[in-house]
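ugh ok fine here u go
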Amino acid sequence: MTGENIRVNVTDEMRLARSALQAADALLGLGLVPDAASRAYYAALHAGRALLFSLGLEVRSHRAVRTMLSRHFVQPGLLAAERSKELGHLESLRTAGDYDSAFAYGVDEVRPEVEKARRFVNDAAALLTAGGWLE
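structure:
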């Protein structure tokens, strides 16, 4: 993967992360809570993929993203361990929202989860900007 390919992938993943956050906010406003939970998770996932692309790593599975983020960003102290835990929680919430017909969370319970995803995206953007991958 060349430097230019890395930059394109990082930029594309962050665009997807921001779009997913915007969708999560809109879906919460419409009361579509399970869908908002799903979009919040994907916002964080795309931001995580952007971080990994910045290292030249193309990771495809959700589990591998969590594992590699821990190895390359949490363990060296670049990303707060709390963000990694939140990513796992957001994935559980997404799974429930997508597959559990008895999804019982309301807007007030999911709004803080969307904010966790926003913090994840913002932290990733700050790291990527500091590393020269984003402007």
